[in-house]
């Protein structure tokens, strides 16, 4: 049950949105958001930050739909700031300032890598707190924010990072949001002992659903309701790839793989495939492009694994129409539909570099077929250009041989 102070405006805003009257919806939801910010959090009952941020997300969703991304960006940032302020008041946060995961990324990536090496030991089933076992004080760390509320802050930070990239914000702005999301993932994993371990404990999942209580009126977008804790790590890794910082990206991708390797859902299998392909792409860029280069061999192996995982997910699925990737946004196989043609294209590039023309042609052809099927336009264009390039090279080679004979 929503507080009486916001109930009427909230319901009117939701109703107006359902009737496609975005301006009226915006007016009501803005008033609900302004009122919510002025009320004591206790007014909202259990998990109040989840409810208050839900109002902000609903408003921002309407603003985006109404062509006002800057205003939506501001509202998302306000909602995240509210969660951060409550989080900062937790005495456990102050008590843990000396822990490595309270330092900003990427300053602590070396410490993270050392922790991963220990964490990845075969047969190591002891509880890991990312080098913080002896330093964490005995305290209920969820006194001020619940796990759901902390995960909501991650979802908001990642959304802000995505918007910063999409709308051309400074790179520092994008890095700020993505780093916060990744840092909070590390803190949650350490605090709640949710790291996926080699002991096969199925209770540890990297996907966390957020419940808005018993209220069914406030229907929020999927990203705000279910967060995959591996996603922010991967997103920050991808940011560092674009910033030409491959070593940062490699560390984050490795950690991402550790998180998802024992969570065999369709979503995590597709994410696993994407991270493997990302690693393959980085290693390929770092190699000297020779057949005896170990990184080249590893890149090829990882790309093959990525393509295999994605294809295994997609083969049993009946995708009847062509170019339907955009229609699969809520489908857990959608990521695999994107990864498969991209991984096959990367394989083709590796084979072409190694002078394996037939294998390259087959990989590019397969990439083209899958990209057309799922409407992955960039992959279609890239595979088509690669096939033309191979054809031209083959023709030129044949003509040169004829002239020399």
TrEMBL record:
PANTHER family xrefs: MITOCHONDRIAL INNER MEMBRANE I-AAA PROTEASE SUPERCOMPLEX SUBUNIT MGR3-RELATED
Protein name listed in UniProt: TPR-like protein
Gene source species: Rickenella mellea
Lineage, opening ranks: Eukaryota, Fungi, Dikarya, Basidiomycota, Agaricomycotina
